[in-house]
Structure formats: structure tokens, C-alpha cells
């Protein structure tokens, strides 16, 4: 863009994100410890993904092509992750360790540094591949069966990898994102989805069943849920003390123990306390409730604008229908997984999500304006 002197374009959907960035800067200015928040200030440059993709792709057909590349890339990474899973099974066997406990400490990551980053990207790949399978037109030069086969392979590879990540928040997000796609493709399959999941769980390996069971019945400290509850309650204490501007970006990780509610017993449950495991509590605690609501506005705004555009489209498969349904499903997945994890703080996840939002904005603003 700079070399070609291309004038940047800003989507309407980017207004709340820009205000969120300003809110972050204001919270940083009044932070209890500004040195702790420098990483979040540097993080703001990632928000430029939205206008850069919006400016450079320009048309729904290019946005659709980008989505197809994402689906293919995540499928390849899923295959790599499956290979890593097999290797970890071998390593656990060699070490004579219980695989369930061994694996939870070192899950598959693909080419990422952490399984949460890997599973977050794979979530988007799964939902984009599913939307392509259900709503995208098959290119005229392709045999329809080949198109269906490619989409099915991508969905299967990414779906298997997501199951093997043992990331419960992503499982829940994937279920509801997929349910949304099924509902607007064939509602009878959406109604059957819980039954299919139940059958799949019954046939799943014991370790997968055990991990699903841990959502309600955690197995001691191995996959305890209690540290998340401690984080949420502590975050609420921060919000009560600093409702407008928060304690400051990333200050929660250095002042966390000062805000732990007095009724919580010590020592605290085993777990990671570097963030609050919830984007809504996290943003409200370190940037204030108004700034958190700006992020909610951005996320909900994507869904609302996509839906308004979808209602104006003719029936049948189309590039626009594919892009918009994929964007809505990915946003639903992000909002649900954000209840349990600080997912949009992970650079690779945030960057991909903003690119998805930009592709939605391209499709929304292309052609007749929304009325």
C-alpha cells in the first residue's frame, strides 16, 4: 500500500474497533502501572489488519478466495497436528506415563507456540470450510463432486485436529458455530446435531470422553475449572474498584493477588493466572466497562451487518452468502470461546479474525448500500 501509494479505505464496521483502540490508550494513560501495558500498546498495530485487508482485497470474489486459502491452510496444519498427536502418544508410552495427564501439559500446536493459538485458528478454518461446503458456488470448471470432496476433506481434517486439541472452550464454540451453519443450510441436520454429538461421544476414545466429562466433573488439578472461577471473581473485584478505566492494560497480571476476594481459600487452585480467561471480564477489568462494550459493539456489529446484507441476497448458493455466513459463524465462535479464554489477545488469532471481519465488510459494502 505504501509503495503503490494506495489510499487506505476504512470499513464502517471498523468504527467501534477504532474507539476500542482509543479506549485502550486512555486506560493506559491512567494505568496504575504503565510499564505493564506496553505490550498491549504495541498490540494495537494489529488492528490495522482490518483496513489493510479491506483496502487490498476489495471484492467479494477475492474475499471468497482468501477464505478458501484459509480453509486449505488450516487443513494442512490440522494434518500436521494429527501427526504431532501420534508422536505424543508414542512419547508418553516410551516414558511410561499416563497419556491423559502427559498430553494436557503439552498438546498439539501445529506451527504455533501454544495449543490455544492453534485451536483458535483451526476453529476459524473449520467454520469457513463448513460454510464453503454449504453455501459457496462450485466453480464452473470443477466437477461438483470434486468440490464437495475437497470441502469434506478440509472439514474432516480440521474437525479431527480440533477434537485432538482437548481444548474444551473451542469444542463448545465449534459446536455452536457449526449449529448456526447447519441451521441455515438444512435445519433438520441442525436439530439432529445434539444426537450426532452424543453418538460421537459414546464412540469416542476414553481420553476424549474423560476430557468432555471434565467440563462438569474436573479430575482433580489435572483439568480443574476452579482457577478460572478464581480469575473471574478477581476480575469482578477489579471492575468494582475501577469501573470506568480499569486498572490499566495488563496490570491485572502483576496486581492479581491484591484483588483476590477474601472468601477464596488459599492456596489458590493450580492454573494460569496471567490473564482472566474471559475477554469481557478482562477488557472491563484492565480498560474499563465502556471500552469493553466497544469490543462487544464491534463483535455484535459484524453479525448484525452481515445479517442485514444476507436478507437482501437472492436465494441459492453465492460467493456473498458463503463469505457472510462464514463471518457470522466465526464471530459466534469467537464470542463463545471468549467466555472461557482471552482468545482475541492472541496475535495470530486476532489477526485472522480481523481479516475475516474485513472480508465480511467487503461483501457488506460491495454493491447497493445497506438501508
What does this structure look like?
The protein is globular. The chain has helices at residues 15-29, 38-43, 49-57, 60-95, 99-104, 115-135, 144-164, 168-185, 187-203, 206-213, 226-241, 252-255, 279-287, 289-312, 319-337, 347-365. The mean pLDDT is 91. It is mostly helical and 371 residues long.
Q: Any idea what the radius of gyration is?
A: 21 Å
Mean pLDDT equals 91
Please summarize the sheet with the most strands. none
Number of helical segments?
A: 16
- Provide the number of structural domains: 1
Order of helices and strands: HHHHHHHHHHHHHHHH
Note the gap between the termini. 31 Å
> Which range best describes the helical content: under 10%, 10-25%, 25-40%, 40-55%, 55-70% or over 70%?
55-70%
The fraction of residues in strands falls at under 5%
Helix- and strand-based class? mainly alpha
So what's the overall shape?
Answer: globular
For the secondary structure, the number of strands is 0
Ranges where pLDDT stays below 50 over 5 or more residues in a row are none
Give the helices and strands, then pairings.
Layout: H1 15-29, H2 38-43, H3 49-57, H4 60-95, H5 99-104, H6 115-135, H7 144-164, H8 168-185, H9 187-203, H10 206-213, H11 226-241, H12 252-255, H13 279-287, H14 289-312, H15 319-337, H16 347-365
Helix pairs in contact: 1-14, 3-16, 4-6, 4-7, 4-15, 4-16, 6-7, 6-8, 6-15, 6-16, 8-9, 8-15, 11-13, 13-14, 14-15, 14-16, 15-16
Amino acid at each position: 500500500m505504501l509503495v503503490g501509494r494506495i489510499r487506505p479505505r476504512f470499513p464502517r464496521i471498523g468504527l467501534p474497533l477504532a474507539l476500542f483502540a482509543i479506549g485502550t490508550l486512555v486506560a493506559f494513560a491512567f494505568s496504575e502501572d504503565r510499564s505493564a501495558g506496553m505490550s498491549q500498546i504495541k498490540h494495537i498495530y494489529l488492528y490495522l489488519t482490518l483496513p489493510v485487508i479491506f483496502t487490498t482485497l476489495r471484492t467479494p470474489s477475492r474475499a471468497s478466495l482468501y477464505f478458501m486459502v484459509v480453509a486449505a491452510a488450516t487443513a494442512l496444519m490440522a494434518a500436521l497436528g494429527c501427526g504431532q498427536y501420534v508422536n505424543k502418544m508414542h512419547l508418553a508410552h516410551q516414558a511410561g506415563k499416563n497419556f491423559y495427564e502427559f498430553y494436557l501439559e503439552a498438546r498439539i500446536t501445529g506451527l504455533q507456540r501454544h495449543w490455544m493459538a492453534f485451536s483458535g485458528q483451526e476453529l476459524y478454518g473449520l467454520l469457513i470450510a463448513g460454510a464453503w461446503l454449504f453455501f459457496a458456488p462450485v466453480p464452473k470448471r470443477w466437477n461438483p463432486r470434486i468440490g464437495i470432496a475437497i470441502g469434506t476433506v478440509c472439514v474432516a481434517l480440521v474437525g479431527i485436529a480440533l477434537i485432538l486439541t482437548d481444548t474444551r472452550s473451542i469444542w463448545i464454540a465449534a459446536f455452536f458455530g457449526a449449529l448456526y451453519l447447519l441451521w441455515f443450510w438444512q435445519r433438520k441436520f441442525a436439530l439432529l446435531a445434539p444426537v450426532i454429538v452424543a453418538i460421537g461421544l459414546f464412540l469416542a476414545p476414553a481420553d476424549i470422553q474423560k476430557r468432555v466429562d471434565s467440563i462438569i466433573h474436573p479430575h482433580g488439578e489435572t483439568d480443574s475449572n476452579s482457577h478460572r472461577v478464581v480469575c473471574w471473581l478477581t476480575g469482578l473485584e477489579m471492575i468494582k474498584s475501577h469501573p470506568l478505566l480499569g486498572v490499566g492494560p495488563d496490570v491485572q497480571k502483576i496486581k492479581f493477588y491484591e484483588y483476590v476476594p477474601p472468601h477464596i481459600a488459599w492456596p489458590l487452585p493450580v492454573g494460569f493466572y496471567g490473564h482472566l480467561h474471559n475477554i469481557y471480564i478482562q477488557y472491563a477489568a484492565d480498560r474499563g466497562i465502556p471500552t469493553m462494550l466497544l469490543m462487544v459493539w464491534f463483535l455484535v456489529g459484524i453479525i448484525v451487518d452481515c445479517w442485514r446484507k444476507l436478507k437482501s441476497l437472492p436465494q441459492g448458493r453465492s460467493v456473498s452468502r458463503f463469505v457472510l455466513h462464514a463471518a457470522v459463524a466465526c464471530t459466534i465462535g469467537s464470542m463463545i470461546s471468549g467466555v472461557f479464554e482471552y482468545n482475541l489477545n492472541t496475535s495470530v488469532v486476532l489477526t485472522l479474525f480481523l481479516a475475516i471481519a474485513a472480508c465480511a465488510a467487503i461483501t457488506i459494502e460491495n454493491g447497493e448500500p445497506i438501508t
